[in-house]
Amino acid sequence: MQARPAAAPLAASVTPDASAAAAAAVVSILSDAEDPEDRLRASGISPDPALFPHLRRSLTALPESAFPALARWAGAATAVSLLASRGLFAASWRLLLSPASPPPPLSAFTPLVRRYARLGRAPAALRAFHFLRRHPDRYTLDDDAASPAATSLLNMAVGALCKEGQPRVAARLVERCRREGEAAPDERTYNMLLDGWSGARRLDKVRKLWLEMRQAGVRPTVVSYGTLIKALCLMQQPDQAACLLDEMRAEGIEANLLTCNPIVNALAHAGRFRDAYKLLEKFHLHGVAPNISTFNSLVLGYCKYGDLAGASGVLKAMMGRGILPTAKTYNYFFIFFAKTGNVELGMNLYSKMVNNGYAPDQITYNLLIKLLSEANRVELVVQMIKEMKANGFESDLATSTMLVHLLCRTHRFEEACAEFEDMFRRGLVPQYITYRMLMKELKQLGSVELVDKLTDLMRSVPHSTKLPGSYREKDGDDAKAKRKLILEKAQAVSNVLKECKDPKELHKLKDDEETDVQVADRLVASIRKRVYGGVSRTLP
User: Fold this and answer.
1) Which of 254, 308, 415, 529 has a CA-to-CA distance to 202 between 20 and 30 Å?
2) Of 23-37, 249-263, 479-493, which gets the smallest average pLDDT?
3) How far apart are CA 520 and CA 517, in angstroms?
4) Taking the mean position of all CA atoms in its chain, how far away is CA 262?
5) Is the peptide bond prior to 325 cis by the omega test (within 30 degrees of 0)?
6) 503: Cβ contacts below 8 Å, ≥ 6 apart
7) H, E, C per residue of 303-352
8) Whole-prediction pTM
9) What is the distance in angstroms between the CA of the first residue and the CA of the last residue of the chain?
10) CA 65 to CA 284: how far, in whole Å?
11) Residue 290 three-state SS
């Protein structure tokens, strides 16, 4: 009998409120100029990643004298990452270049270079690299550095640029360093470049770089092959990727799940389930056993093509192998139910999932709330949100937005306003389209007080006023008539231009003594005649 998994704890180890309170305590300690480092140590607050989003918001209010204590508490790399994320680049540099023994590790400069690259400031990222190349005494190598100092520095910059979508800049940097003889790229350099070009979906660059690597005498590793296989699978070429598994075996490189799973995923994504199963049968030849990601790829593929029987068969097969499904596995089913609007099947699967001891995650609840919202099942949506909160998940922007829209559709405007206000209390800024929709309904009801209250709330926070390109107000009779008239005008213009495409017809339209301006005036008159039936539209 299949053992049931242990149920996940109902609450997260660190709740959002506890994280916010701890971050506020850290800010309070750092704001005090008297021994912040000792007080942080005495507080017993550990630098948990859950605190950092709350801490990040308050960094601009802290004195710069508090940043060294922050770096010693959270680590130099984390402190620089937090400061750079708030645009405090000058403060980051002063922190990194302040007299210290020993100097900060090279990894502390990585978030700074990455942030420059993420913002599209590649020249600033390169200046940081060249500064460190000229001043190697400003950093120390990390303990796990396996390359020489110059190559490690190059790899730091190349990795940061490639991870932020700048492989072209990274490739030029590698070429320059190779030409100047400063640093020789190693297999790690090539692997990061391969990954960068793969992420940019430039298979031509990946293949060219692969040949360069082989010609340079750099032997590819399993990571190199995994990156090339991923690139081929992204470009929907799983057959070529599968051939690389045989090439790896011929070169004595053992395959792993990172080289095999992308091929299964690509085949399932293309609906080639028979080929996916054939490859699955060959896993043992490569010394690889399928894992949860392997089966999740098959479930996703079947759900994509609407084959619930096939997806259920995969679920049974994986459990038969002792591999238990996760929330991600079930979420693929819920994605399909949300697309098809099948509330009954979705709720039945959710009940089975919970009763069998599998814990839903935030995405599970978001998908179910979307499914129920689109079916206008208000009571079930409210119940689902309560269950979500009971299991340690707070309503995020997507969940709250769906609830507000649902309450408006069902004319429960007071509850919609209450949820809208609660979003601000939880630190969420509603989307402008949600605000506009709610305001329109309240104005029609004459709720002046609520209109003013919500307007003041939106004015209290920075927000975008852009609407989605697909957004369109509900049409009245005037709007429909106006749009019909525009379409008629466009059709008339199209007809006239079609007639004028033929040079012979154009010659007939033009008298010998007519100028081009006169021809244009006559064409405009013809269009007006077609649209308005000869009635003049000019003002007296």
Assistant:
1) 254
2) 479-493
3) 5
4) 20
5) no
6) none
7) HHCCCHHHHHHHHHHHHHCCCCCCHHHHHHHHHHHHHHCCHHHHHHHHHH
8) 0.72
9) 90
10) 59
11) coil
